[in-house]
Amino acid sequence: MADKVGGIPVIDFGPFLEGDTTAQRTVAEQMRQASREWGFFYLENCGMPAEQLAETFAASKAFFDLPTDEKNRVAWQSAESNRGYVGIKRERLDPSRPGDLKEAFNLAPEQPDPDAHKNLWPKGHPQFEETMTRFLDECIHTADRVLQAFALALGQPADFFVDAHNLHHHTLRLLHYPPLPEGFEPHDGESRAGAHTDYGSITLLFQDDVGGLEVRTRAGDWIRATPIPGTVVVNTGDLMHRWTNHVFCSTPHRVNVAPEHRHRDRYSIAFFCHPNKDAVITCIDTCATEDNPPIYGPITAGQHLHEQLTNTYGP
């Protein structure tokens, strides 16, 4: 059985990677239950090298320590690209609230099409590009294993979701939440990251030890997703919500200004796993019945992402 932290399940992924068919089905069922009841779970023993994760966090910190004008030379430009540096308060994850008290850097797998958008790398820092490219590859590998478990949980062929993600239209996002000044009081609903759901299929989230992530329960309460060393937080996004006809839930979450940590930098890394942009997201046959027909009509993954990013950043 999966353990729980504050109610959020903790699932050992080792038996899925190394066990027999029975062990894999047990893990897949735990993930199905967690995704149905919470939309969130911690995954341990997922195969992500600890040394590589530490190296990536160090490289992220080094980037955010660069002068602001240097970061702005690789600034985010458009929803079509969705790459580059996002300054503090530039993004509003909750469009009804002020800009988020964070900065970010987005990158993505490079596409073979010569006309495709390219990553915006800061000049003079080749090690940063190398570190992030290696970590991106590791995230793709881990996400594919999670997607295989989800397919098993839904009675689909093992590569059902992996095939729909094989063009790697994903986004890796580095996040930095600066310390808040002494005496700072949030106003008009300011927060480090406003309440939102993720746009894609699944997200892999790596946290430092500062914490601040909060998840909304089905009852409407907010609980902390306390960092657990050696785990990655997995949550299901809006497209998985649609794909599975609400069998897997896309749950609102936020990063709050926790009083005990307001004086500390917080760093996290999110890998947003997104289906191929031309993939048509329509209800999976095993997720609908006569009594529970499909809730949503078809939509392409690319159309959905563009709409959500436009709402987030504004015109």
Automatic annotation (TrEMBL):
Pathway: Alkene biosynthesis; ethylene biosynthesis via 2-oxoglutarate. InterPro entries: DIOX_N, IPNS-like_FE2OG_OXY, IPNS-like_sf, Iron_ascorbate_oxido_reductase, Oxoglu/Fe-dep_dioxygenase_dom. Pfam families: 2OG-FeII_Oxy (PF03171), DIOX_N (PF14226). GO terms for molecular function: 2-oxoglutarate oxygenase/decarboxylase (ethylene-forming) activity; metal ion binding. Residues 168-275 form the Fe2OG dioxygenase domain. GO terms for biological process: ethylene biosynthetic process. Coiled coil: none annotated. Keywords: Ethylene biosynthesis, Iron, Metal-binding, Oxidoreductase. The keyword Oxidoreductase applies. It is an enzyme of class 1 (oxidoreductase). Its EC number is 1.13.12.19, 1.14.20.7. Its cofactor is Fe(2+). The keyword Iron applies. It catalyses: L-arginine + 2-oxoglutarate + O2 = guanidine + L-glutamate 5-semialdehyde + succinate + CO2; 2-oxoglutarate + O2 + 2 H(+) = ethene + 3 CO2 + H2O. Monomer. Belongs to the iron/ascorbate-dependent oxidoreductase family. This is 2-oxoglutarate-dependent ethylene/succinate-forming enzyme. It comes from Marinobacter segnicrescens.
